[in-house]
């Protein structure tokens, strides 16, 4: 067909007459400010033999700053080096791609020419498709850009050829996503020693999990004893998947990168000889084939080693990050220990000072009446002796000596209890408290403690406080230290009477009903109750708001009960009058 006046509308035509084809080639060059060309070496020779002049004009204009010049993608081999050099000298930009698409095309400003002919030896094209449709122009320009970005500069390619290293630049562009991904897994299957993978995104990792790709890696590890390492820019969900993955595939080493390090490509390297780079086109897709774009394969030593270096750098970075993370955790833990130690030292210092103050007060309190009353008794004795010497038999009225002796005995016992408490605290802190356990009926010890306690009360206390005993009817057998259990009960009764100026105190025993494995002893009073400020630390050392006492008794009692495998607790009564202190002991089954 003849090439007449061009249509004013968009068109796509097939030109099958060589003279018309030649006119179209010249027309495209003359009406474009720049050209983007993909062709075999025969296409470059065709231009050199038949259309050199219009192409040279474009290049000359570009040298003066006009237009975009010419970019050409070609497969450069040894026999084409000299021809490529000619065009390089003219200012043409040329890149080498080993595996070119099955069609040759030229994209101008407003048109694209395409042919599927082999163009061997620079022979004239017999047919050509030409179009000024925006869709076609955009499509072929996109293909060109993708190839250009992965191509090797012609100067580097020529140098490799001249140095005998042409095989180091083997690169294949794979536009079909399915073919590219399948190719990646095919080279993975061929691995003998090592597989390195950098996933582009967390979603890319999840997609591979779903299709069972990592099961394939496991099989390769087991078959060839290959070493597999995987890097994943992980989000929270991917982190969890990686942890589960590590359990299922312990021989596959996988690490997570910081999520911001995600890229647009997934890189697969095998035996440090081959690599496949898969573009991520739409990361939101569920299918790997739908998510992927163009793939690039290379067995170039330079390219493969470069990607391996990137991988190792990132891998080492994750290792350093983990070490830093562990060090930070250790430092944090150490800091906590230091803070805790300082707090404990502060507490110990405060506790020690508090104990010294309390002990000094407690020791001073009974000592003064003991000394004072002892001096009174001594003076009375001296007066009696003096009166006898003077022959005066008249007896003077003095204070009731029994009352004086009771006060001395009571305060002496306070000293005794304080001394025993200090010794017990030392044994508890050193885990050296010894128990002399024996089998006995608990009610007998409770009754004994209750009787001793009642006999020690003063006249005033007996008049103002009513004592009640409510024992379980059964003979509950326990194995325990009688002296220590008596010590616990006596302490609870003494505390009850200290805080109950008027009212009642009841001590009771009850066998636990549900399982019958323990017996509970309760001391209930109607006194002032437990101060809320010390409720949480009631059974700790020095927990007291009383003006008398060290606050050691309950701490010692709880330690004694727990040493017997029992429990101790306390609570204010529901009517807000007084408190109940309880402890449990294991029983011997009937």
Describe the structure.
This protein is α+β, with helices and mostly antiparallel strands and 590 residues long. It has four domains: 12-162, Endonuclease, Chain A (2-Layer Sandwich), CATH 3.30.870; 170-299, Endonuclease, Chain A (2-Layer Sandwich); 328-431, Helix Hairpins (Orthogonal Bundle), CATH 1.10.287; 433-586, Heat Shock Protein 90 (2-Layer Sandwich). Helices cover 49% and strands 21% of the residues. It contains 18 helices and 22 strands. It has helices spanning 18-30, 41-50, 52-63, 81-89, 134-150, 154-162, 177-189, 202-210, 213-224, 236-248, 288-291, 301-389, 401-429, 442-456, 459-464, 482-498, 532-535, 553-563, and strands spanning 12-15, 34-38, 69-74, 93-96, 104-107, 112-115, 128-131, 152-153, 171-174, 194-198, 227-234, 253-258, 265-270, 274-280, 292-298, 438-441, 465-470, 477-480, 503-511, 518-525, 567-572, 579-586. Strands 1-7-6-5-2-3-4-8 form an eight-stranded mixed β-sheet, sandwiched between helices. Strand 5 and strand 6 form a beta hairpin. Helix 14 (442-456) packs across helix 16 (482-498). The longest helix has 89 residues, at 301-389. The model is unreliable at 1-8 and 393-399 (pLDDT under 50).
């Amino acid at each position: 067909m003849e090439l007449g006046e061009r249509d004013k509308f968009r068109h796509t035509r097939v030109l099958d007459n060589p003279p018309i084809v030649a006119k179209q080639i010249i027309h495209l060059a003359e009406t474009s400010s720049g050209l983007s060309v993909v062709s075999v070496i025969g296409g470059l020779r065709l231009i050199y033999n038949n259309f050199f002049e219009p192409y040279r004009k474009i290049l000359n204009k570009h040298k003066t700053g006009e237009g975009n010049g010419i970019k050409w993608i070609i497969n450069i081999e040894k026999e084409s080096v000299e021809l490529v050099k000619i065009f390089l000298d003219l200012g043409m930009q040329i890149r080498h791609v080993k595996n070119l698409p099955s069609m040759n095309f030229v994209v101008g400003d407003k048109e694209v020419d395409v042919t599927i002919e082999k163009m061997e030896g620079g022979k004239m094209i017999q047919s050509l498709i030409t179009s000024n449709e925006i869709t076609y122009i955009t499509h072929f320009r996109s293909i060109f850009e993708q190839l250009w970005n992965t191509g090797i500069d012609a100067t580097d390619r020529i140098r490799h050829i001249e140095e005998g290293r042409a095989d180091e630049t083997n690169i294949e562009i794979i536009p079909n996503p399915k073919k590219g991904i399948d190719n990646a897994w095919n080279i993975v299957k061929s691995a003998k020693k090592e597989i390195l993978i950098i996933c582009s995104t967390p979603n890319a990792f999840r997609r591979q999990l779903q299709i069972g790709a990592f099961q394939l890696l496991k099989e390769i590890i087991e078959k060839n004893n290959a070493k597999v390492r995987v890097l994943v820019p992980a989000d929270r969900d991917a982190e969890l998947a990686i942890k589960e993955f590590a359990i299922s595939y312990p021989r596959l080493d996988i690490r997570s990168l910081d999520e911001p390090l995600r890229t647009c490509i997934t890189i697969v390297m095998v035996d440090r000889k081959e690599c496949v780079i898969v573009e991520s086109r739409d990361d939101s897709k569920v299918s790997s084939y739908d998510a992927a774009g163009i793939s690039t394969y290379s067995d170039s030593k330079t390219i493969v080693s470069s990607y391996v270096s990137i991988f190792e750098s990132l891998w080492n970075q994750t290792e350093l990050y983990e070490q830093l993370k562990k060090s930070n955790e250790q430092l944090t833990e150490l800091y906590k220990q230091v803070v805790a130690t300082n707090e404990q030292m502060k507490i110990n210092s405060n506790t020690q000072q508090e104990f010294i103050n309390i002990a000094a007060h407690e020791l001073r309190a009974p000592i003064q009446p003991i000394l004072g009353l002892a001096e009174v008794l001594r003076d009375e004795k001296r007066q009696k002796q003096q009166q006898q010497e003077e022959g005066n038999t008249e007896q003077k009225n003095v204070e009731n000596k029994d009352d004086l002796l009771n006060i001395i005995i009571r305060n002496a016992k306070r000293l005794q209890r304080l001394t025993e408490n200090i010794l017990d605290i030392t044994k508890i802190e050193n885990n050296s408290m010894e128990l002399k356990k024996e089998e006995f009926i608990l009610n007998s010890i409770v009754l004994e403690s209750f009787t001793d306690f009642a006999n020690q009360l003063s006249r005033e206390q007996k008049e103002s406080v009513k004592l009640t005993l409510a024992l379980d009817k059964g003979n509950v057998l326990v194995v325990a230290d009688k002296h220590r259990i008596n010590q616990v009960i006596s302490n609870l009764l003494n505390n009850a009477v200290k805080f109950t100026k008027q009212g009642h105190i009841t001590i009771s025993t009850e066998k636990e009903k549900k399982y019958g494995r323990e017996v509970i002893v309760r001391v209930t009073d109607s006194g002032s109750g437990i101060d809320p400020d010390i409720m949480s630390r009631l059974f700790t050392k020095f927990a007291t708001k009383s003006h008398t006492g060290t606050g050691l008794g309950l701490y010692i009692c709880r330690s004694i009960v727990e040493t017997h495998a029992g429990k101790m607790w306390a609570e204010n009564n529901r009517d807000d009058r007084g408190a109940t202190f309880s402890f449990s002991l294991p029983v011997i089954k009937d």
